[in-house]
Amino acid sequence: MSLTRESAPSSRWRVVRNILLYGGCSGLLIAVLNLTEYRFLVVEHSVEIYVALVAALFAGLGIWLGLTITRKRPEVIVNAKETIIKEVPAQAAGPFVVDETRVSQLGITARELEILGLIASGLSNREIAERLFVSENTVKTHSSRLFDKLGAKRRTQAVQIGKTSRLIP
């Protein structure tokens, strides 16, 4: 983020410098055309001059459009209530550590915590059962007990509570 803030003034200076440079070159070109009796030049080479002006216009438009389109924009997320949330990437302070006091307060077992992590990774009950080498009913039992302990009604709610309680990363 600090690089972006530092590069913004230099980027502006570069734009101003380019504008002054092109303006100076244009002024010099006009002076040269006046000295060489531009009327004769315009009459003889009017098509080439018009083509060059159109080419310069489209080159400038292409550069501006390219810079505008490729500019990085923040990610925008729309939640269920149709409110717009801007996503800001956050840097982790360090490796994730489970809040053991919260785990013991809620009475969550190691297996239930493991199942909560697998639910958070998006696995279904069948996939969790296959990964843990248990039956699907065992996963359902652990999930329902976990939901009761967390006070959750749905899987997504359990994951949200688990993240805010620092039970899962």
How much helical structure, as a percent, in the residues?
55-70%
Question: How do the helices and strands follow one another from N- to C-terminus?
Answer: HHHEEHHHHH
Shape: rod-shaped
Indicate how many domains the architecture comprises. Answer: 2
- The count of strands amounts to 2
Low-confidence stretches: none
Average pLDDT, rounded to a whole number, is 81
Work out the strand percent.
under 5%
Our measurement of the CA-to-CA distance between the termini, rounded to an integer number of angstroms, reads 24 Å
By helix and strand content, what is the structural category? Answer: mainly alpha
* Rg computed from alpha carbons, rounded to a whole number of angstroms: 32 Å
Description of the structure:
The protein is mainly alpha-helical. The chain folds into two domains: 2-69; 100-164, Winged helix-like DNA-binding domain superfamily/Winged helix DNA-binding domain (Arc Repressor Mutant, subunit A). It is 69% helix and 5% strand. It has eight helices and two strands, in the order H-H-H-E-E-H-H-H-H-H. It has a two-stranded antiparallel ribbon. Helix 5 (110-120) packs across helix 7 (136-150), helix 5 packs across helix 8 and helix 6 crosses helix 7. It is rod-shaped and about 95 Å long.
Characteristic terms for this protein:
169 residues, two-stranded antiparallel sheet, mainly alpha, Arc Repressor Mutant, subunit A, rod-shaped, single chain
